[in-house]
User: What shape does this take?
Amino acid sequence: MLWESVMRATIFFLGILVGLAGCNAGTPYPNLSPIAGARVSANPNPRGTEAFCQQYGRQTAGNSYENRIDRDEDSIGADLLYRQQARDDGAAAYRRCLAGRVD
Assistant: This one.
């Protein structure tokens, strides 16, 4: 009986640890975002560098796409339009970042 309780507690805590480990990984956007390189994680590049601004633009584009898309309702045409709008948002964010305005 004691052994069963210990095993259940161990399995429970291992499950929590595995779940939390996934929170720290730099995972790509869910649902197959078409924005290459966009990730759901902090920007690993040093602020003020071009690499930071490129990643900032990709993350902005990924966020924009994910906020617009409705996978159950949207047509192919709407999806293509949302992709282009997201890329435009990402390009604008990249230019803002190069100018020193990350807002």
